[in-house]
Every structure is written in structure tokens, then in C-alpha cells.
Amino acid sequence: MRLKHNYLLLILPLLLFSCKKKEPYLEVRKTLEKVLADDQKFRQANYDETKQNPIDRKNIKIVTKIIDSLGWLGKDKIGNDANLALFAVIQHADQLSTMEKYLPILKEAAKKGDAEKEQAAYLIDRVELLNNRKQIYGTQYSMKKNGTAFIENLIDSVNVNTRRKSMGLYPIEKYIRMIDSSNNVEYKKNSRL
Fold first, then answer.
1. Same-domain pairing of 80 and 34
2. Whole-angstrom Cα distance, residue 60 to residue 85?
3. Mind telling me which Pfam families this protein's record contains (predicted)?
4. pTM
5. Residue 150: which of 131, 172, 128 has the closest Cα?
6. Residue 122, number of CB atoms within 10 A of its CB
7. Which residues pair with 143 in a beta bridge?
8. How many domains does the chain have?
9. Would you state the pLDDT for residue 185?
10. Which domain holds residue 138?
């Protein structure tokens, strides 16, 4: 009986160690999943800047620390939501310098398959517009007073769908229809008509 007990004492740490080894980024994944939830907390329906901005500042510290120490972790290491959190927080950063610092890292991650090409397109366009240049992929839109979306400041609009396709994006016409259909529901809810 004592031999079985000793055997269990030897094998238990090995089992625990092997479980940890299977998911080495478990804590990072959990942290980033919470970050993603917080990133969207006050962006839904009625965006509340005063509540969201402090959360964004906290999230950017967490995400940049992770990227700086571990690189841009792919879905295969941390799962879809945690991987999406890396992009969402950088995309929503309040400092252009932060976006510019992590854009090359995101582009490289997209080439390796550790990030989506679509995400790179969104951040590229945001950085271009914030630098008073024209967007390349037409991912950044504005809303008219009637609740319909429009794309402005776009280079070479004739070939935009070719560029969008190369990044895994829908044709721009479908993109605008999708924005309009989702925003018009919200616009009608909040309209005084």
C-alpha cells in the first residue's frame, strides 16, 4: 500500500506539470479575454466616452506589456477572443504613436498567420487618416445624420475592392450595406421620428 502511495506522490506532480505545459498561455488568455470584454463594455449601442476612456488606458498598458514581452500571440496559442483583444485595444488606443509602434508588429503577425489580415487593414487605415492621409482599404467610415454610412478620404477608389480582397475584406459596397443595416436599427431606436 505504501508503494502505491509513493507512486501517486511521484506521478501527481508530473500530471500537473504536463497539464500546465499543454496551455502555457492560460493566464494570458484569461487576462486578454477580460480585456476584450472591457474593451467593448461601453462601445455597444450608446458609446460612453467618459466611462470607456479609463478602461482603454488600463487595457493599453496590459496589451502593450504582453506584446512587448511575448510578441503578437496567435489564436493557436491564446484562442480567438484573446487574439482579437490584442488588435481591438491597439485599434482603440488614444495615442497615434501607440498605433504606429504596433502596426509593423501586427503586419508581421498577419503575414505569419498570428493575426488577421483584415485587422492590419483596419489599423493601416486608421493610422493613415490620423496622419491626414487617405485610407487604402476603406475600413473607416463616417455616419450621415440620417444614419447611413459613407467612406471618405479613400485613395484610388476604382481599385479599392481589389485591395480589400487581398486583405480578406468584403467588397466596399457590401461593407457599407452591412454597416447601414446594423446602424439603421440602432439609429431608428434612438431617433425622435
1. yes
2. 10
3. DUF6624
4. 0.81
5. 172
6. 22
7. 149
8. 2
9. 45
10. 134-193
d(CA 127, CA 93): 11
CA torsion sign for 164, 120, 123, 87 is positive
Residue type, 5: H
Same domain, 77 and 142: no
Q: Is 69 a domain residue?
A: yes
**pLDDT per residue over 50-97, tens digit each?**
999 999 999 999 999 999 999 999 999 999 999 999 999 999 999 999
In a domain, 63, yes or no: yes
The answer as to whether 75 is a domain residue is yes
Residue 119: exposed, middle, or buried by beta-carbon count in 10 A (0-12, 13-18, 19+)?
A: buried
Which triple of cell numbers denotes residue 126? 486608421
- DSSP character for 153? S
Listed residue (53, 72, 76, 54) closest to 63, CA to CA: 72
**Grid-cell match 506584446, residue found:** 67
